[in-house]
Amino acid sequence: MAQYLAIHPRNPQPRLVRAAARIVMDGGVIVYPTDSCYALGCALDNKEGRDRICRVRELDAHHPFTLVCRDLADLATYAVVDNRAYRVLRAHTPGPYTFVLPATREVPRRLLDPKRRSIGLRVPDHAVTQALLAELGSPLMSVSLVLPGAAMPLGDPQEIREQLEHFVDAVIDGGPCTGNATSVLVWEEGDFHIHRAGMGDVSGFAPAETG
Predict the structure, then answer these.
(1) pLDDT score for 69
(2) What pTM was computed for the model?
(3) In CATH, what class is 3-207?
(4) More confident of the two residues 24 and 77
């Protein structure tokens, strides 16, 4: 049965953050809050954890995962970014955006979008997530918590506990989330294009290219 960790959404208790980080480092799968919705996550090198997340979400083996990072410091390790892209990232992080960029060779194959050889990067503006990432010292491999058959991500930690306590190792209650997904922006032909309009303001970005 999953551990249930109620962590203050603005002033995270260090003891509980350390407990959550230990679960991740020991190979666990967690549910955690972000500035958009709750998400499923595990350590970057945790292949078994990724497989467990896929079973919870009923995802196929090629579904791309997002790297959830504390800040942009690790960016060059995982993504190819030119000066223009970096300026956009700096202006919109932390925030409710997922940026899809060309991946470097440091990214495990299982995390990539197989068609694009790209990786989604995310820097959430949430104190609990930030504290957890700081304690871990590395990104989380993650997907939004959208259960099979559902149209929207789950946002109520009590409901999440009831539905998933036998399928994950910890549920981090950081208060209710909106249940809305992030905006997804894909880098193509020297600019970011809107792949999905979600919580983040996308009025300054171009629509996705078609054809």
Answers:
(1) 95
(2) 0.93
(3) alpha beta
(4) 24
